[in-house]
Amino acid sequence: MKEDWTAISDIGKTFEGKILTVEDYIAIEDSYIKAIQTIFEFFNLKYLKVCDVRKSFGDDQFLDLISRRKVKYTSDTLEIYNIAESIEKLEYKDLDLFFRLMLREDIGAKIFYPRKLKIFICYDYLMGIHTSRSIEKIIPEIEALGLFVEAF
């Protein structure tokens, strides 16, 4: 077992003798987003359903928190955060912003496409998916992003 970072709040801390930089964090976040987009495309989806959205912070607390974070939030990301609880369908164009908020533990939600796919983002930068068919064909593509895929 190696010591590794597990959250956006770990930026600036040292792991295995290396400081986690904003750039390193964003590179991994980008890999997770690309993996989600790859899965979305593999299933040829038009949208994902969203329910049970939970904001981790009150609006004022959230604004205070992100003002102190080293990762900058775009106005588009803030807009998605503000309307997150009213989003029922997530289209491809919004996957990036919504899932970044989930990876950063700013929001939680149930994300799925009925009878095809469920995507889970959990603490410790863990992502899981349940699918109606094998994704074996795209696993090499996901692993090429630097992500570890474990079948269970």
Distinctive features:
152 residues; globular; 7 strands; two-stranded antiparallel ribbon; five-stranded antiparallel β-sheet
Please describe the topology of this protein.
Layout: E1 14-15, E2 18-19, H1 22-42, E3 47-55, H2 59-68, H3 75-83, E4 89-91, H4 92-103, E5 107-113, E6 117-122, E7 126-131, H5 139-143
Antiparallel strand pairs: 1-2, 3-4, 3-5, 5-6, 6-7
Provide a descriptive summary of the structure in words.
This protein is α+β, with helices and mostly antiparallel strands and 152 residues long. 38% of the residues lie in helices and 23% in strands. It contains five helices and seven strands; from the N terminus they run E-E-H-E-H-H-E-H-E-E-E-H. The strands form two sheets. Strands 4-3-5-6-7 form a five-stranded antiparallel beta sheet. A two-stranded antiparallel ribbon has the order 1-2. Helix 1 packs across helix 4 (92-103) and helix 3 (75-83) crosses helix 4. It is globular, with a radius of gyration of 16 Å. The model has no long low-confidence stretch (mean pLDDT 94).
The overall strand count is: 7
Shape: globular
Radius of gyration: 16 Å
Helix content: 25-40%
In angstroms, what separates the terminal alpha carbons?
Answer: 20 Å
Strand order of the largest sheet: 4-3-5-6-7
Q: Outline the biggest β-sheet.
A: 5 strands, antiparallel
- Secondary structure category: alpha+beta
Instruction: Report the β-strand fraction as a percent range.
Output: 15-25%
- The overall average pLDDT, rounded, is 94
- The total count of helices amounts to 5
